[in-house]
Amino acid sequence: MKFSVNWLREFVELPKSVDDLAELLTLAGTEIESIGKRGANFDNVVVAQIKASAQHPNADRLSVCQVDDGSGQERQIVCGAKNYKIGDKVPLALPGAVLVGDLRIKPSKLRGVESQGMLCSPSELGLSEDSDGLLILSPEAKIGEPIASLFPEDTILDVEITPNRGDLLSHFGLAREISAIVGQPLRLPNRTTAGGAPALQEKGISISAPNACPFYSARRIENIKVGPSPDWWRARLESVGLRSINNIVDITNFVMLELGQPLHAFDADKLTGGINVRLASASEKFLALDGKTYSLGEQDLVIADAARAVGIAGVMGGEDTGVTESTKTLLLESAFFDPASIRRTARRLNLPSDASYRFERRVDPGTVLAASNRAAELMREIAGANPAAEITAAGTLPAAPPDVSLRYEHCDAVIGVPVGKERIEKILRGFGLEKKGQGNGAENSWRIPSHRFDLQRDVDLIEEVVRVFGIANVPGRDRSRFTPESDADRGHDLESSLRARLAGRGLAEVRTSKLISRKATEFEGAIELRNPLNEDHVALRRSFYPSFLDVLARNVLGGARRVAIFEVGRVFIPPDGREERHLGILLWGNSAPSAHWRSDNRTLDYFDLKGVIESIIPSASLKRVERPGLTLAVEIWRNDQRIGFAGQVVSERTRMIDANYPVLFAEVNIESVAQLGSEQNFREIEKFPAVTRDIAMIVPEDLSHGKILATIVGANEPLLASAELFDVFSGKQEQNFGAGKKSMAYALTYRDKTRTLTNEEITVVHAKIRERLQRELGVELRE
Amino acid sequence: MSHELERLRDAALTEVAAAADEQALEAARVRYLGRAGSISAWAERMKSLSKDEKPVVGKLLNEARTAVTAAITTAVEDLRAAKEARELVNIDISLPGTAGEIGTLHPLTQMLDRGISIFRRMGFALAEGPDVETEWHCFDALNTAPDHPARNEQDTFYLPDGRLLRTHTSTVQIRTMEKAPPPIRVIAPGAAYRRDEVDATHSAQFHQIEGLYVDEKVSIGDLKGTLEFFLHELFGADTQVRFRPHYFPFTEPSFEIDVKSKALKGGEKWLEMCGCGMVHPAVFEQVNSARGDDAYDPKKWSGFAFGLGMDRLAMILFGIPDLRYFAANDLRFLKQFAS
Predict the structure, then answer these.
(1) Which of A426, A430, A751, B272 has its CA 20 to 30 A from that of B177?
(2) Which residues contact A424 (CB under 8 A, 6 or more apart)?
């Protein structure tokens, strides 16, 4: 909310510097978001009256005006605006004036016609953004008066008010807060009520929904003259962001900004019969002040007369009972509505207003009638109206907030330093709390003022003490404690080690959104949101797959030649959204990151992907399967448990990506990897030398490495320590072993734990394995 | 006699020194040290020497043999080293080093890890809770009743079954206290969601580190000490830290923390870092009712909680101008954070 510093000053003595005030409020919990200057503090700008206007002889868009600047001599001004009429009073910048944007005014000729100054728009005077036409001043403005006296200089604070502090949504409210913090007395707003406070009486108002509307009051105000507000009033309203409408509406807004109580003025002559505050009927239609028709529901509170609803309570008045230029008699509403009820209606209709904003945050029951009186007095003063001698009211105002008890020792314990009873009591009194009785010295009960409904229990009072005491005066303390490792710690550490290992292998970690787009949901059934905001975030991912394809496409578009990425994170499994932690991997493009003078560059393929998987799950086994979307699909198994899948994406799926290389993708549930635990066990380092012998063979193309290896290992030779495949190549017609065949070569390592092996015994064992390969698989051994 | 042996040694050393290649050295070795070499021949002649001469000549002979052998060995090494050096003399040492792709961790991961490691040094354990939450855990348990002004369903993503995506990681406070009695000292890194149009400073998904400390006689002083230490560790000891009273439904008193540090971009301004406060007794009461016991008796236990926005922290620390970089995962961006 915007606050005028001049306005605040009417109620409390402020620190000299506005920056000090801003700092003070910010550190007491009311943050000042920005500080702006307002007003038209210009020399040589005066009120002038337009006496005559004629078309410029040489320019269609300009006119030549004769104005009275109060000097007794008429002055000729060339002007481009159209929004004035003869007799209007407007700001005139005389030669010598310097306006917004360092615009210097001097006598000049415009298209051959002399101009002795400039008539000003609001924006040229820095009063608002409005640059559409001249600023038309009120008829009461005195010709020749400096404009600075109509629009005095002011500072505007933009203040963030937290939702618990509805009592700060007015100038008086913020001044009251400042007075408590700085310890300065508060000056009450002007309450000169002619003839004393008006009597209350009940007639012509009924409340059928007392829960939603505990209290309603209306005052008849007769003989009003609707017209523009005085200039200083308009300036004040506009400086805090409100548009001036007419004197009556402006007064209700003024009182709301001053005291925090929203008021509404009905044209009494357009009402039929008495007022009834009731809940709307289902689908009741209502034409509001904004010209739109709203369909109401049985939850919505309305103000009605005998014929129809005339206002959505606390939210917006009706179009056909509003104040117009012809209004003669008003009914001035001031009420207390249930905050929750107003909030529901304003949200449902998506109709936030200055009034609903305050009702939702609970207005001060103690101000409801005071505000009505203040507005009536202003109408008497400014619009010459006659307020009725009494206010008609129904219902009862909510009781004052319950007393709150505070133990002084507890207050000190929560804050962490002794503040002391005396200081605590002084601070609480500053906020308008009253001590009840003398207590027992250790604890006291406090009466809470009607505007501080947020003070409900002892911690709320402690917060008030801290705000004024100053948290800067509380020394920080260290309370270390030993904490055992949790499951979440272990999970985090596993994820970290996976990330480190994959980054070490040259993969880049990505973090894609867990919310996926409508387009991405086509790949898979994902849990959709009930209320997505846009097409980009409509469902919860169940896999990294669609997001990874997006990342790939974006990077290919960016010129990448190699995309090797991974992500570790949560996915959501339909139908119930069970959360699993998965690892996703995508490989695409060149094996080398960029062109290099000695790189043996090739295209990343299935075996690169498999290598990455094996680097994190050494005991993984892969089974070939069919899976839609993958040309080459394998399942990843570990300990008889399927933990993921991998494969090469069908190129049709990646066609929109300008990607000529295969796209390789894998996804693994790492919850089960987390159970890997310690597979780390000490094994004695071999003391005796190993001997390696090779076997090369020609085999049919469809004989797998897995089968050959199983045959070698299946020989169960105790001296065989390992068998490594070191060469594979497929035959071509021109080669001696021909098409349909491939050559494979293995290095077999022999070792004994207890002695050095002799050549002879190795030869025997090696020959046995060779024979086994020939016998079992019919391979053709090469020498 | 000894003079002769010395002359022979000097001749051999001269020849070795003059040898141009390994062949010449081998020839010299054979000539002097070979079985029939002239130095070796002296061993034969020893037999004919007198008792007095033997030790003297024997010593000379050994010295000559050792000196010549050493000279040949050194000369061979020098020749080989010179040959190697000749082979490498034309290497262009400015050629690029052998390529190898360096992987990277996402800047948000790095930021989270930095935060987590500081809190772990302070004795916090990790905790977690689901992203998909119940309304009770996200709002009601956190003292935010359905009609509370701070409870904004407009900004919340809902699932068809009525559950929601947590709007803050404070839900983990509740999850943790439901499971375990006090004392509690945990942090919970995780994602939260906001139904917000995406721009340079807003995203639908953001990341927080939540913290919760519950013990006997925990005070604002403890809260202050803990977070001041964290922020000084993160931004440097000369960082100014300011606590500013604020409002959150689930803490009372509540604060926002601002920091000012020369190490940061825009170091002249206070930058908002963290929301925190003393756990509201109503939160303990909600937890007790869910647990069905009085484990979190607000008369006995007090605590503090905090939430750090990690996306914003990463933006500030790394100087990243737009939040959207984090989710775009452009490799040209990610590789800037290879450490």
Answers:
(1) B272
(2) A406, A408, A411, A465
Residue A514 has its nearest CB partner, among B205, B215, B246, at B205
Q: Are B288 and B302 in contact (CB under 8 A)?
A: no
From CA A536, how far away is CA B327, in angstroms rounded?
A: 12
In this prediction, residue A127 carries a pLDDT of: 76
Which amino acid makes up residue A681? Answer: N
CA angle A772, A777, A783 (to 5 degrees): 65
Higher per-residue confidence, A659 vs B149? B149
Q: Is the pLDDT of residue A674 over 80?
A: no
B214/A705 Cα distance (integer angstroms): 59
Q: Which residues contact A732 (CB under 8 A, 6 or more apart)?
A: A739
Evaluate the omega torsion of the peptide bond into residue A575 and state whether it is cis, within 30 degrees of 0. Answer: yes
- d(CA B202, CA B217) in angstroms, rounded, equals 38
> Burial of B258 by CB count in 10 Å (0-12 exposed, 13-18 middle, 19+ buried)?
buried
Q: What string of DSSP letters covers B59-77?
A: HHHHHHHHHHHHHHHHHHH
Q: Of A397, A218, A169, which Cα lies nearest the Cα of A317?
A: A218
Confidence of residue A538 (pLDDT cuts 50, 70, 90): very high
In this prediction, residues A624-634 reach a mean pLDDT of 90
Which residues 30-89 on chain B approach chain A with CB closer than 8 angstroms?
Answer: none
Q: pLDDT tens, A290-327? A: 999 999 999 999 999 998 999 999 999 999 999 999 99
Q: Which residues of B touch A502 (CB under 8 A)?
A: 103
How many whole angstroms separate alpha carbon A157 and alpha carbon A145?
A: 28
What is the C-alpha separation between B244 and B223, in angstroms, rounded? 13
Residue of A nearest to B335 (CA): A508
Which single residue is written with the structure tokens 């007769």? A222
What pLDDT score was predicted for residue A736?
66
Which residues does chain B have within 8 Å of residue A503's beta carbon, measured at their own beta carbons? 102-105
- CB half-sphere exposure, A195, CA atoms < 13 A: 11
Rounded distance, CA B284 to CA B276, Å? 16
The pLDDT of residue A677 is above 70: no
User: Could you tell me which residues come within 8 angstroms of residue A223 by beta carbon, excluding any fewer than 6 positions away?
Assistant: A328, A329, A384, A385, A386
How far, in Å, CA of B159 to CA of A622, rounded? 36
Tell me what pLDDT residue A221 has. Answer: 94
The whole-angstrom distance between A243's CA and the closest CA on chain B is 26
Q: Are A444 and A405 in contact (CB under 8 A)?
A: yes
State the Cα–Cα distance between residues B40 and A422, nearest whole angstrom: 111
Half-sphere exposure of A546 (CA within 13 A, CB side): 22
Q: Strand, coil or helix: what is B238?
A: coil
Give A425: exposed, middle or buried? Use CB within 10 Å, 0-12, 13-18, 19+: middle
Q: Which two tokens stand for residue A171?
A: 């100038």
Q: What are the C-alpha distances in Å from B274 to residues A55, B208, B224?
A: 63, 10, 12
Q: State the ipTM, two decimals.
A: 0.84
Q: Are A252 and A281 in contact (CB under 8 A)?
A: no
In Å, how far is A417's CA from the nearest CA of chain B?
8
Lowest-confidence pick of A174-183, B46-55, B178-187: B46-55
> In Å, how far are A170, B150, B165 from A313, measured between CA atoms?
20, 22, 33
Is the overall model pTM greater than 0.95, yes or no? no
Give CA–CA dist A693/A713, Å, rounded: 15
Min CA distance, A409 vs chain B (Å)?
A: 12
Please, are residues A374 and A255 in contact by the beta-carbon 8 Å criterion?
yes
Strand locations in A259-411, DSSP E? 264-267, 275-279, 285-287, 293-295, 301-304, 309-312, 316-317, 330-336, 386-387, 390-395, 404-407
Distance CA B19, CA B74 (A): 12
